[in-house]
Design a protein that fits this description.
The protein has 260 residues and is of the alpha/beta class. The protein is 42% helix and 17% strand. Strand 2 and strand 3 form a beta hairpin. Helix 4 packs across helix 5 and helix 4 runs parallel beside helix 12. 45% of the residues are buried. The structure holds the ligand O=C(O)c1ccccc1NCC(=O)[C@H](O)[C@H](O)COP(=O)(O)O. The ligand O=C(O)c1ccccc1NCC(=O)[C@H](O)[C@H](O)COP(=O)(O)O binds next to strand 10 and helix 11. It comes from Rhinopithecimicrobium faecis. One of its GO terms (biological process) is L-tryptophan biosynthetic process.
Length: 260
């Protein structure tokens, strides 16, 4: 069983438990559920922004604890001030030490798009994302069948959410081309064995349609890499650990963006 299989199995249990605690009708009554989402593509096109989707990531399966001290609001506010186009907040607790409370805390201090970084296997999690203040949801092709991808994408769009569709290879990209998504991310990390290589981004960039935002995800730690990925055609860059592994992630992103 791969780590991705374990995460997905755990998600199905969590979702079943969450549905008992809070019904869909209750989520639909949360104040944030009715808000209009910020557009990821518009944010990326705003002058002065960097293309970086900066992630609040306390821990991960591959690295264990990354940062146990920096608070979510301080970090995401710093990311926004440094010119991030969007903020990613992990909401998985068992593998990443995140929570929905982190997501809503981030919403309180942000005026740019907010991504619920989660392993979505059920439309209930999309309703939760909206209810807790997200503008963007992640759909991971490796976790979902064609039917599930289609149903989840259409439900997210019906709530006015942006969709970041994540792929790892050409087969996953081809399965996703018909979906109504705003961005396609190439994950440089193989979620089954943790191997990270930018070769995935370079081999897929020209196969991603020009109508969606092209995002390179994971393993980015050098401003030179951003310049090279931009040259190849990427418009956005999802970065977590490189900032979060420092004692001051807000300072780390400020120094980083000066060099891109
Ligand atoms: O980060 C992991 O170890 C991981 C393991 C299994 C599934 C997903 C995982 N990470 C999620 C992500 O996609 C990253 O948090 C994100 O792309 C940022 O990556 P990085 O800049 O390398 O922290």
């Amino acid at each position: 069983m791969t780590i991705l299989d374990k995460i997905v199995a755990r998600k199905k249990v969590e979702v079943a438990e969450a549905k008992i605690r809070v019904s869909l009708a209750e989520l639909e009554g949360y104040p944030l559920f009715k808000r209009t989402c910020y557009s990821l593509q518009e944010s990326a096109a705003t002058a002065g922004r960097t293309g970086i989707i900066a992630e609040y990531k306390r821990a991960s399966p591959s690295k264990g604890l990354i940062n146990g001290t920096s608070t979510v609001q301080d970090v995401v506010k710093g990311y926004q001030d440094a010119g991030a186009i969007a903020i990613s907040v992990l909401t998985d607790s068992d593998f990443f030490q995140g929570s929905l409370a982190d997501l809503s805390a981030a919403r309180e201090v942000l005026s740019i798009p907010l991504l619920r970084k989660e392993f979505i296997v059920d439309s209930y999690q999309i309703a939760e994302a909206k209810a807790y203040g997200a503008d963007i949801i992640l759909l991971i092709a490796a976790c979902l069948s064609d039917e599930e991808l289609t149903a989840l994408a259409h439900y997210a769009k019906s709530l006015g959410l942006n969709i970041l569709l994540e792929v790892h290879d050409e087969a996953e990209l081809n399965r996703s081309l018909h979906l109504p998504v705003d961005a396609i991310g190439v994950n440089n990390r193989n979620l089954k064995d943790f191997v990270v290589t930018l070769d995935h981004s370079y081999s897929l960039v020209n196969k991603i349609p020009a109508t969606v935002l092209k995002v390179s995800e994971s393993g980015i730690s050098d401003p030179k890499t951003i310049r090279e990925l931009k040259e190849a055609g990427f418009q956005a860059f999802l970065i977590g650990e490189n900032f979060m592994k420092t004692s001051d992630p807000a300072f780390a992103i400020q120094s980083f963006v000066k060099e891109i």
